[in-house]
Design goal:
- By secondary structure, the protein is α/β, with parallel strands linked by helices.
- 36% of the residues lie in helices and 21% in strands.
- The strands form three sheets. Strands 8-9-7-6-12-13-14 form a seven-stranded parallel sheet, sandwiched between helices. Strands 2-1-3-4-5 form a five-stranded parallel sheet, with helices on both faces.
- It is elongated.
Length: 354
């Protein structure tokens, strides 16, 4: 019960290996049992050390991180957290890694790496902890966490509209850990004439645009990163940009996107709670919503507000979630009209919106 989470760090940079080791070893429930400078060394150390979690660099010599991850997931599946660079190439490779089965990722700073990574210590520790309990395919903090702002600071509560001068339907989706693949699976089940879809996925700047472009190529829908004032059109999907809240507002009889740099809510920007509350206020029962896999509780309050306003709501079930944090909290609060496996969510949203 008290065994520490055993971590192997794989990175070609000696500095990154040193910093990650120091950060993770400060957590009393985590132990870095070894490091490796490339996948060939990592392969032997996995055999000898039997780690619970791997942190894996995206770009390495001798064998790239994707090739190694592909082989690892085929031969010895285990939780992997990618350590990615904030570049277009880094974003694309990281998204491919999530498709291959990596649980999550942290971004690697490009300047003053030692200082910047230390600032990300809490996030790194949390993601390693979460990965240890994730399905493949007590808080310790080094510094005070950012304030946990309420959704009220971004969008005050008010009743859902009683009369709507439109019959346009709207689908809202929220997700976090494991969500890049879960959201894609839902979108792939939607036809080209489906209602407009708005998505809040916890993802940093630089990755949200790459993810939207990737899903635009992989699904039959038009997927784009949301911009201020975008009119919501059927068959289109609007992704919250990293570091911005996405809200839905009314412009006459149409729905439009609004972006906000308001305070992070539940320590997230974009926040699912912010998106869901805006959907309650703009669309009322013309909307349907789904809360997918993710760590924490963001979106649970928003889904409850939607449910209480008479909106059809779905929480992804535990068996198909990478992490049953957000949807599990929503179920606990009585926020979900249905608790469904991932493969049934698209059809259920379509039935409810027809």
């Amino acid at each position: 019960m008290n065994r520490k989470i055993r971590v192997l760090i794989v990175d070609d940079s000696a500095l990154i290996r040193k910093v990650l080791t120091e950060i993770l070893n400060t957590a009393p429930d985590i132990e870095v049992v070894g490091t490796a400078q490339d996948p060939y060394v990592a392969r032997e150390r996995i055999k000898g050390l039997n780690p619970d979690v791997l942190t894996l660099d995206v770009e390495m010599p001798r064998m790239d991180g994707l090739t190694f991850l592909r082989n690892l997931m085929r031969l010895r599946p285990m939780p992997v957290v990618m350590v990615s660079s904030l570049t277009a190439r880094g974003a694309d490779v990281t998204l491919q890694a999530l498709e291959l089965g990596a649980v999550d990722f942290v971004t690697k700073p490009t300047l003053d790496v030692s200082r910047a990574l230390t600032e990300y210590a809490d996030q790194l520790i949390d993601k390693v902890r979460m990965a240890a309990g994730a399905r493949v395919r007590s808080q310790v903090q080094l510094a005070a966490p950012p304030p946990k702002h309420s959704v009220d600071q971004v969008i005050p509560a008010r009743p859902a509209p009683v009369r709507l001068h439109t019959t346009d339907r709207l689908l809202a989706i929220g997700a976090s850990t494991g969500g890049t693949e879960a959201v894609k699976d839902v979108l792939m089940g939607l036809p080209t004439d489906c209602p407009a879809v708005v998505v809040a996925q916890h993802i940093p700047p630089g990755f949200s645009r790459a993810w939207a472009e990737r899903m635009n190529r992989q699904t039959s829908l038009v997927v784009r990163e949301a911009e201020e004032g975008d009119r919501l059109v059927s068959g289109h999907v609007y992704i919250a940009p990293g570091d911005h809240h996405l809200l839905v507002a009314r412009d006459g009889a149409r729905y439009v996107c609004r972006l906000s740099r308001g305070e992070p809510v539940n320590r997230h920007r974009p926040s699912v709670d912010v998106l869901f509350r805006s959907v309650v206020q703009a669309a009322g029962t013309n909307a349907c919503a789904a809360l997918l896999t993710g760590m924490g509780a963001d979106g649970a309050q928003g889904l409850k507000e939607l449910h209480d306003a008479g909106v059809f709501t779905i929480a992804q079930d535990e068996a198909t979630s990478v992490v049953w944090g957000m949807p599990g909290e929503a179920v606990k609060r009585g926020a979900a009209a249905k608790v469904l496996p991932l493969q049934e969510i698209a059809a259920a949203l379509l039935r409810a919106s027809s």
